[in-house]
Amino acid sequence: MPFRFLIRTKLIATLLFMFLLFAVAAVYLAFFTDRLLKQVAAKVFLGMAGDVIEKMDKDIFLKVEQVQLFSQNTLLQDEIKKSNFIFDELPARDEYIRTADSQWSSSSKETVTPFMRELIASPLSQILRNEFIEFWEKKYGYRVYGEAFATNKYGVNVAQTGKTSDYYQADEEWWQEAQKNGFSVGNIEYDQSAEEWSIALGIRIDDNAGKFLGVIKAILIPQEILRNVELVTKKFREADIKLLTADGKLIYSTKPFSVLEDVSKKKFFFNIQASRENDGFFLMREEGEEKLFAYAHSKGFQDFMGLGWIFLIGNDTSKMLASVREFQNTLFFLGTLFSILMIALALVLSRAISTPIQKLKEAAQRVAEGNLDTQINIKTNDEVEDLADSFNEMALKLKASYSILEKKVRQRTEDLEKQIQELDKTAKRLVKRDFELFQTNELLRQMDKAKSSFVSIAAHQLRTPLSGIKWSVAMLLDQDVGKITKAQRDMLMQTSYTVERLVQLVGELLNVARIEEGKFLYTFEPFHIEETCRKILEENKKDAEERDVSLNLIRAKNPLPLVFGDSVNLAIVLENLIENAIIYNHKGGSVEVILKETPQGARVSIKDTGMGISSSQQNLIGQKFFRGDNIVRQQIPGTGLGLYIANKILEQHHTRLEFESKEGEGSVFSFVMPFFKPR
After folding, report:
1. pLDDT band at 534 (very low <50, low <70, confident <90, very high)
2. Which fold has domain 405-519?
3. Do the Cβ atoms of 655 and 635 come closer than 8 Å?
């Protein structure tokens, strides 16, 4: 007897094969996505590292320009000219300078001689304090410069904001470099007179004819330069971020460190040195975890050649790919559960089909052996039960007419065999149909579960490649990979604009998804709402100028107290409101950000002279994807998600967005932030 596969065996074998195929595909997909996502993450980190180090170089260059601009100050030059004239006529000048410098350097740290006090209290010294110490501390709330002083052409101090360690400076390397090259920028070091870590800026002072008058030195506190690093640290809280000198000394780290701590023997620094001055990324194991690091070298900005600093950012790949791992595990779990259910269903179906067929087979064998009293009892409520009833009827009729209708019985038997074949075909078709329907229903159920998270997953997957495209286009525009023509630049500018719109759309979709899933995080702390408003206005200044729209901040008479909230998320609200006020405005229009103190808190109002919203549609403001008909008709780009996100963020601050609008005349959007009340 040839070997046969039973129906139950075939069903189970088919589903086991499907499960094995799914497992192989899942393993391959996991490997492929891990590799791809690591490459994409590396490019994103690399672009971010390059951007941060470039901004630091630019910030240092701007500080040099600020000091250079001050070097043209009339009072400064007049006072230094006077000092030069006095020293020109001074007999035994060199001996006088040596004696004065020796007395100055030998005095104790706390001693301020009358001569020192006279220099520190001079009108020029007060101007230096106002320009470099008080002005920037008032503007930012912290000191930008530790000290500043000016020397004449002989290198002796003419004015200073505080006591310096020396009176004679011309023997210093920074002074000589500034005199020769126009300016000097020192690496980070501990300044004894300022008593803090600093960067020394030395600027040559020339009169209008280009004649050398002296040198001015400003001690720049690194906090101002490191703000870009701190912003990245705040955004990527779990990342391992370091800023190093070219020879491997730490300037900044998210881990505990000492300033200028030598880490040149560390494994990660050897990986950086392997590429010399090229930017790059690498994978390495640290503390038992695989980490991805990207780094960028300081390349300077315009005339400033840079300090050779290195910015390094890295993170555990396990944390970076956590969401992907979760998705993979979920997919594998669902696939396994689906396979188990299919196998269980196959067993149930095979039993339900094979058992009554087996009964029919046994009954037919008994009838074939001549036992015409055979009857079977099958209750399946389907064609098999009908077949069993027909079989029983056939047996009864055979018994009644066997002796006289043998020929007719044979004929009927033949007919019955044909019916059995048809019924068997029908049964198989029905089983196949039921199986297909079950698969379809299960697939629909899975799709229904997946659709709610599709937007979030799609936005996450889109954000990384869009960031890569954004950095690639930026590199092309900056001609980092070669020169481009005007036509190519115009096309790249249009591409950059389109990518920015896509990035904005993806960002807003992600924010909406996080809000609706309850994953939008908040960190409540006291902060100055006026500083946040100024920052957002400054970021939108260029866009407003391009659209010929004026931006103005109307602040309260007295400084507003601290408010309590999430400054980062409140910045998103302000960005959406101010950006809308600019985009939907008229050429020559204006946008005013008005700050008022009320009993409930700080009231922030954004008033524009733009297109406004018709009264018939004002009840739709704040709904997802809503945009006014007058805006849509003019084909102004937008997503209709900004006000929805703003509303949701303000709800978490227990406040709401209020508005007044008249079509063609503009709108006013307002909200109130509660003041901070210390316990």
Report:
1. very high
2. Helix Hairpins (1.10.287)
3. no
